[in-house]
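[09:14] KT: can someone run the structure on this one? pasting the chain below
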Amino acid sequence: MERQDSNMPFLLKYENVAWYENGKVRILDRRVFPEKHFVICENYMEVKQAIADMVTQSAGPYTAVGMGMALAAYEVRGRSKAEQEAYLDKAAYELAHARPTTANRYGKITYACAETGKKALEAGADPVEAIFNDTIQSLNRRYSRMRLVGDNLLALIPEGVTILTQCYGETIIGTLIQAALECGKSFKVVCAETRPYLQGARLTSSCFAEMGFDTTVISDNMVAYYMQNSGVDVFTSAADTITRDGHIANKIGTYQIALLADCFHVPYYVTGIPDEDKFGKNDIVIEMRDPSQVLAYRGIKNTLPQVKGIYPSFDITPPQLIAGVVTDKGVFPPEQLNDYFTGEQHRFY
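[09:31] RB: done, structure tokens below
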């Protein structure tokens, strides 16, 4: 089976996202990257917890939940067909709900994996192998579809300009890099660091710098200064969810950068596939994480014990701040995203 992760940075290689092998799932711990440490999960609930703890994030959980389903099938090998099927259903639900904002996307993968495992059992085949292979096929589909998104985004980026990114767009970062290198287009990249886990500083900047792009990191509170004094030509981010009416949820801080981009007349292009089952912002569930995660970083306390914190994982950017939603089918004005769902629909996950 041909893989779609060639000419991708280290972080985008399949084995460096999440990987099932010999009754274990290995997940690269993005919380400490560029240190290369893997978390080893020996049951699917440990995979679920790793996702909840943000060992992997962005599109990483899409791979991790599939590999977690292969692990679930391994856990119940040798039991009755009914027991194995019930266990796969339970694992599919649990893994899908590892994080609330993207449960619908995770579920498309986990429930498909459960059905794959059941069909393998019916045919007398190995459900572990079947689910693993289905997960690789899902990765190939996603990388291939996102390559179309990357091509469409690259067409909006003139030669030699400066783009600003927010958080870690994972597959779109890799496919944008692929497309740019293949056609020889160059641009400068500025990465907002993305507090509190610094995904922009540690992940996005690593991908661009590794592949030879001029890359600068700024702290989140430098965006206005940088736009005013150094110049940004394009602001772009992925989205954890995109509603039919053009609202998007992305890493906390995206909304305020979009406001600044509007103030400085910088176009904001969102990348991704719209969610068919989310019609407006009221369909978006904002995950509230443990406030202690903003009061310390990597074990070092930032505040006195009596200080309180708040940690909404995402915020919602309204359509009027978005210049276009860049998809595999082209670039859509955010208020026209319903048009994306006309015609043939392709499986993405």
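[09:33] KT: thanks! Residues 127-154 form the longest helix (28 residues).
[09:34] RB: yep, looked fine to me
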